[in-house]
Design a protein that fits this description.
By secondary structure, the chain is mostly beta strands. The chain is built from no helices and 3 strands.
Length: 56
C-alpha cells in the first residue's frame, strides 16, 4: 500500500490527540488542510477542539 499522498487545501483529515498524562486516553477529531496564513506556499492544519462537558 502506498502511504504517500499529496494533500490539498479544503481536504478533511483526522488527527489523534493524545493525553500526555494518561497513556490510554486519546481524542480523534477532524481537521481541515488550509493554506498557511503567513507562508502562502505552505499548508497548515486547522483544527477546532471543543470540550464537551456534562451538565449536572
Amino acid at each position: 500500500m502506498n502511504m504517500e499522498r499529496g494533500y490539498g487545501p479544503g481536504e478533511i483529515v483526522y488527527i489523534i490527540i493524545r493525553n500526555p498524562h494518561a497513556q490510554d486516553v486519546a481524542h480523534v477529531q477532524q481537521a481541515a488542510i488550509v493554506q498557511h496564513p503567513e507562508q502562502p506556499n505552505k499548508l497548515a492544519l486547522f483544527s477546532h477542539y471543543q470540550q464537551i462537558s456534562k451538565k449536572r
